[in-house]
Amino acid sequence: MTTTATRPGDRRVSPVFLGILAVSGVTGWATWTGFAAVPGLAVFLFVTSAWIVSLCLHEYAHARTALHGGDISVGAKGYLTLNPMKYTHALLSIVLPVLFVIMGGIGLPGGAVFIERGRIRGRWRHSLISAAGPLTNVLFAVICTAPFWLGALDGVPPAFRFALAFLALLQVTAAILNFLPVPGLDGYGVIEPWLSHGVRRQVEPFAPFGLLFVFALLWVPSVNRVFFDMVDGVLGFLCIEEIDTYCGFDLFRFWQGTDEYCGV
């Protein structure tokens, strides 16, 4: 069984993705150097573009794992190009995740790739395909927090430090939400191959509403508090303090004015 895309163009990196990556690099540099006249605007653009990059890589990880698992159709669907417009509807893939970041600092799992599961053989492969996406968020979180747990923050400008902390928070929230064993989320996809056929059939109708159910629960104050306590616990383990993520979110929403405590 071949595990390569049928056409070289199927794996050519999209100019759209490269453009977003370039924005992330330039605004990251502007945040680091203080070049931007409005630090909050640079932080907003840096975090937003880096977040979209992580969304693309999340979906790419699903597709690439599926490709090696036997689904050679992912190349023709454009999933290996890292083009965010290929991962379902632009509204679901990009706009909603960014809106949720602005509204509440939550990394909404965005986008989706449609895997032809009939081509995949073996339950472990199915589980790995589902796990590949959120594991990418975990890797992003480790990279973003590396300067913190390595004690390498000397000389790091405050604005860049806060932006990294907030970006790490988004990755942690996305990983936790994605790993929930709720129909429609990757966590359920990990365990689904191990469930009986009867259980899968009973649960299947609820899959389109799983994410909406989770976010409805997050609006419940007690649930929201438990969720963010968990997130803060993970970030604390990675040596990020709450003040870092608070100031990162504060700078990100620059149009509301910056808290003087977070002044940079």
TrEMBL record:
Positions the record marks as coiled coil are none
Annotated membrane topology is: Multi-pass membrane protein
Gene Ontology molecular-function annotations: peptidase activity
**Signal peptide positions on this chain:** none
State the superkingdom.
Bacteria
Q: Where is this protein localized, as stated in its record?
A: Cell membrane
Q: Which PANTHER family match?
A: ZINC METALLOPROTEASE MJ0611-RELATED, ZINC METALLOPROTEASE YWHC-RELATED
Entry's family note:
Belongs to the peptidase M50B family.
Q: What is this protein called?
A: Site-2 protease family protein
